[in-house]
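Quick illustration for those who missed Monday's session on complexes.
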Amino acid sequence: MSGASLVDRAARPRYRADRVGTRAHDWVQLLKPRVISLVVFTGAAGLAVAPGPVNPVLAAISILCICLASGAAGAINMWYDRDIDAVMQRTATRPIPGGRIPADETLVYGVGLSVLSVALMWLATNALAAGILAFSIFFYAVIYTMWLKRSTPQNIVIGGAAGAFPPMIGWAAATGSLSVLPVVMFLIVFLWTPPHFWSLSLYACKDYGRAGIPMLPVVRGARHTRWQILLYTLILLPVSLTPSFMGLCGPLYTVTATLLGLGFVACAVRVLLEKQDDAGVSLVGDRAARVSFRFSLAYLFLLFCGLLGDHALTWWLS
Ligand code: HEM
Ligand SMILES: CC(C)=CCC/C(C)=C/CC/C(C)=C/COP(=O)(O)OP(=O)(O)O
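Prediction with farnesyl diphosphate bound:
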């Protein structure tokens, strides 16, 4: 046997395994797994704080459906945005612009998973949960991605509603109805989205400008964006405390929401006061905006943990 074929035999299986692994990884990346992990967590929280006993199998199926649906919407977003993703540094290596997954296969994948998730939700729970799930996919994939994202700097404010529906979906899956608390949870995520995204957009501004996407700092400038971030954190703080004012939760949630809300406002004030030029562009590498973006992720996760902990405590004490 020649040396070359020995090398071939040794190399071939490893090459195949790597390719299979890479392809599987790319199919998962189309679902934006890191982003949807928090989306799914908020949906699970909505389900967990809903009143009445929930069948654990149906709860698990509902959470799986929210996961599949948000991933599917992400895949349709990547299919539609393949032109701008190729231009932006942050997204240029995604599976479609990277040439690793064909665009048409991504569309079939996104639409297929959308149909599967909605049908499964309907079969396992009820029409209300399935209906809001379908509407969320439509809102993110069509209203936000295909329309608002490229046409208005308010794109993420209105489009952010898509990512705010999961707590309502979780609650509806558990109860077949809606109530004040899931609507407040919707409002919290809705008002959280602008400071979450605009913090990131302050330091990703060049990317969006190059791709021609009218994100707020591109259109209205960095200084205006800094004020808007502060405005939304200031509105978010009292809204996040509505469950306390309405007697829908106890002191654990109230303390958590107050501390986190003040922390988020403090991050926004730092973003506003950061050393900047006349146009509001940071002179210190957008340090405050980076901290604010990271804090936004911790904020939402911990706030909903506070709600879950409060709910568990009330149940345990009763
Ligand atoms: C229109 C609304 C939103 C916009 C435009 C937006 C935009 C973004 C962008 C551009 C990133 C960076 C992603 C990357 O580089 O891969 C990001 C990260 C993230 N977003 Fe959002 N987001 C929105 C809503 C949400 C919602 C509703 C959630 C969850 C409830 C969320 C959770 C996350 C998480 C967890 C990350 C971090 C991902 C990582 O660590 O790589 N986002 N978001
Ligand atoms: C239940 C359900 C269907 C929920 C869908 C909600 C969802 C996936 C929300 C996440 C929002 C998100 C990833 C925005 C990214 O914006 P972008 O697409 O402008 O970001 P990009 O530049 O990174 O692609």
